[in-house]
Design brief:
Layout (H helix, E strand, L loop, with lengths): L8 E5 L8 H13 L3 E6 L6 E3 L2 E5 L6 H19 L3 E4 L5 H9 L3 E6 L3 H5 L7 H19 L4 E4 L2 H8 L5 E3 L22 E5 L8 H7 L7 E5 L5 H8 L7 E5 L3 H10 L2 E4 L13 H8 L4 E4 L2 H7 L5 E4 L4 H13 L1 H17 L3 H13 L3
Parallel strand pairs: 1-2, 1-5, 2-4, 5-6, 6-7, 7-8, 9-10, 9-12, 10-11, 12-13, 13-14
Antiparallel strand pairs: 3-4
């Protein structure tokens, strides 16, 4: 164990994520700071340096575009990291893999936090020519595995990723992106009246099901969809607005964490109807558990892994995410059967309070860090 008189210096690094990213800052950095680690987070957003919740945030400036970020910002991040001379470096972006071995050669503990299965994601990228996806996926996987084999350890988010990385690195831990209970302690305390509405809160994209969600509102018997988040691009928004179901949508835009809580409290159920891509069928979407801790049932894609996770909790209706009529039928059922929806919501909340929560994952992350003592 680390002695209380010695604070080990930890540095988290990202060029892609926002400084207050829920997983990186709110969950990992803040919990490490609470456990007496000296924590710095290096970001690239142009918003300047600051100290927040015991974490020092250093900004290397916002890149002018994605190409510049990918080609040049790893060097800037590496230079700033070496200045810090931390004991442990923990990076979160695949494009920073190239600096992992540089830091390891300096005798540092280097951890890669793999949020997603990148090679599998490439197979589903519509903007890539279909003939390029498979060979590119294989190249990325070989490269990722090669670098990972040289690092001190890996943090993953799903069992499949854990199994994959254990082949090349024996020091792997699965830290799921479950919600922090504290964020939802006030659920039900504001006497917010439930509307005849369901919600979706998160990034808005085709593969996350926005077109089918909106189209499903045609079959929901007048129920409303509270849609929170930013569209992936304006073209997708224009396409979505043309749907006949759009008249039953209330577009909320990007929501703060407080606004998310209020939106969930007003809703009868939450939607997580991701399309069955190779990267999503084995994922663990944090929004599903945020709906549950907020005390509302889930309308979820009928993926076998998701059934395995939560079906026994009896807190979700599973649907074919590519059939708007199925989604609409589930919405109508929950809006019309309020008592059933309420009971499902209470069971889901109980499940998160007991097991699907960040506190259970925080222990694994701290134990992982302490193993390097």
């Amino acid at each position: 164990m680390i002695k209380n008189t010695i604070k080990r210096k930890v540095c988290h690094l990202t060029t892609v994520h926002v400084r207050y990213d829920t997983r990186i800052f709110v969950k990992e950095c803040c919990c490490l700071a609470e456990k007496e680690y000296d924590v710095t987070l290096i970001v690239a957003d142009g918003k300047g340096d600051e100290d927040k919740n015991g974490v020092r945030i250093l900004d290397v400036g916002k890149p002018s575009g994605r190409i510049k970020r990918v080609l040049h910002y790893h060097k800037i991040i590496l230079s700033k990291a070496l200045e810090l001379n931390a004991d442990i470096f923990h990076f979160h972006d695949p494009e920073l893999l190239r600096i992992g071995t540089n830091l390891k050669k300096k005798g540092k503990i280097v951890i890669y936090d793999s949020h997603e299965d990148v090679p599998r994601q490439v197979l589903d990228k519509a903007y890539l020519p279909s003939f390029l996806r498979r060979p590119l996926s294989k190249i990325i996987e070989r490269y990722e595995n090669k670098i990972v084999s040289q690092l001190s350890g890996v943090v993953t988010v799903t069992p499949n990723l854990e199994r994959r990385f254990l082949i090349t690195n024996k020091n792997v831990v699965q830290v799921c992106n479950f919600p922090k209970i504290q964020e939802f302690e006030i659920v039900g305390s504001q006497n917010i009246v439930k509307e005849d509405a369901v919600c979706y809160v998160g990034a808005i994209s085709k593969v996350r099901g926005v077109l089918n969600m909106v189209d499903a509102m045609r079959f929901s018997n007048g129920a409303k969809l509270l849609l929170g988040g930013k569209f992936e691009n304006e073209g997708l928004r224009e396409e979505t607005v043309k749907s006949k179901g759009w008249k039953n949508v209330e577009e909320l835009g990007f929501l703060s964490r407080d606004e998310v809580r209020v939106t969930l409290e007003k809703s009868v159920a939450g939607l997580v109807v991701l399309e069955p891509t190779k990267s999503y069928v084995d994922s663990i979407p944090v929004k599903m558990f945020e709906y549950m801790i907020a005390g509302i049932p889930v309308v979820a894609s009928d993926f076998s892994y998701w059934r395995e996770l939560i079906e026994k909790e009896n807190c979700a209706l599973f649907v074919d995410p590519q059939k708007p009529e199925d989604i609409g039928k589930a919405i109508k059922t929950l809006v019309n059967e309020r008592q059933r929806a309420s009971e499902m919501g209470l069971r889901g909340r109980k499940a998160v309070l007991e097991k699907f929560n960040w506190a259970s994952q925080e222990k694994k992350l701290i134990a992982f860090y302490d193993s390097f003592s």
